[in-house]
Amino acid sequence: MTILAIDTSNNALGVAILENEKVLGEYITNLNKNHSIRIMPAIQTLMNDCERTPSDLTKIVVAKGPGSYTGVRIGVTIAKTLAWTLNIPLVGVSSLEVLASGVGRYFNGLVSPLFDARRGQVYTGLYQFEDGQLVIVEKDSLVMIEDWVEKLKITSTPILFVGNDVELHYNVIHQTMGSQAVFASITEKNPRPSELALLGKNKQGEDIHSFVPNYIRLAEAEAKWLEAKGIK
Amino acid sequence: MKKDQWIMGIETSCDETAVAIIKNGREIVANVVASQIESHKRFGGVVPEIASRHHVEQITIVLEEALLQAGLPIQEVDAIAVTEGPGLVGALLIGVNAAKAIAFAHNLPLVPVHHIAGHIYANRLVTEMQFPLLALVVSGGHTELVFMKEHGYFEVIGETRDDAAGEAFDKVARTLGMPYPGGPHIDRLAHEGVPSIDLPRAWLEEGSYDFSFSGLKSAVINTVHNAEQRGEKIKPEDLAASFQESVIEVLVTKAKKAAIEYGVKQLLLAGGVAANKGLRAALSQAFSNYPEIELVVPPLSLCTDNAAMIAAAGSIMFEKGKRAELSLNANPGLEIEEYNH
Ligand SMILES: [Zn+2]
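Output (structure tokens, whole complex):
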């Protein structure tokens, strides 16, 4: 069992190879640089360094969003095409779940991974570890950060915020929630591709042809068109 | 005996997800096009974000269908040719990344293709190219006269300074209240009308092979507005015929002049607007007295965006040693002269 995990859904770019019970290798950057140029060479380098060839792969796991529309499409297109052409299973995992998974494992409380979505909005969800398994408490959505922290405050449970974009919203979170809000250290802020591989390890393969990113939002033109037609 | 050459082409520059496989550069063995036009009609034009989403939905389906049609395992393919640009960046990215994934998975060479080079090479699927030649490229995004002295060498001798011819067709169609895409509607209407309305022709300065269609487009819009204000009704058929005649006259006259000046053996028609019946008829008329210049007009299915043309251009570029690394990116503004090999 050799899993290739790919994440280009947000600013961090990640690739990992997980083989049986071992993470063979992991490549990660947190740079605002073009994913389309860098992802395939990153995959190739990691595979070469790990002395694995494409025919050794038994599964592809991809971060399916939410995130940058273009970014997530790059990873999903590569993952779909690789899985299809190598005739191996494809598994998609929430990009937020990947963030929550790394640091949340040893946290006694709820985890709110987040990516900034501009204009005061964030992509986030609520996760919790139960008996070593990551459980979704609140599914991924697009919310105003102000509304989100008000809602979390009522839980009276410690909330761990994780992600590189948390600092953009630090003031709002801290002012509303005070010590109820816990913040991950900088070494835990990147989504880890090895976590992505692990999360996908025991998941069933999905239909490759119909696999699409989880954009959360409709394309703007589509939303306006539906609105004009009176469909909500 | 020389081994057969098999090239897979992938094209996603606008609103068609297309994959094709061709043999020895000229024979189509698979040609699959998934058009998104029905989806974009709602918006009166191609919406880039929606085009990108559809490409992701379609890409592996189209790839699989092409291999099935060809009855060829992917390992037998000699190279993957993909449209690098120009086009919509988000749309191009799907084809480019799918191509890179396949090339990586099977250790195959990757050949980047310029979209317009593809349109020109669609002609090689009809007949062998004879150099020097001139290509008249007319599409929604391009109006160019491209001179080729040999394979893989492109020199733009004239291009539009404002709107592409296809763009003018779409805008005029909209003015006449016709749905997107307007080109075919204008062509159909034009055949039912008479070119009785006086519209300008932009010849530009003496000796220039450049084009300009924005003045013509404005003249059409003004004609409609003025008639409305006077309470008159213009026959859309006549307006379409007059507009089309103006566009075609300029295109054909300049193409003919350039073909003679450059002493070419062939004039190739390329691009989506090449599907226009009026343009096809006018060109054959214009070149009927020049038997030394062969006029090549591809069938309609090869004029609009497809991947067979990308594979056809890719075949030549592959032979010429053109390769891309796995760092290949979409290049939405790629110039054909930067692409020369
Ligand atoms: Zn085109």
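Helices of chain A lie at 35-49, 69-86, 95-104, 145-154, 170-177, 193-201, 220-228.
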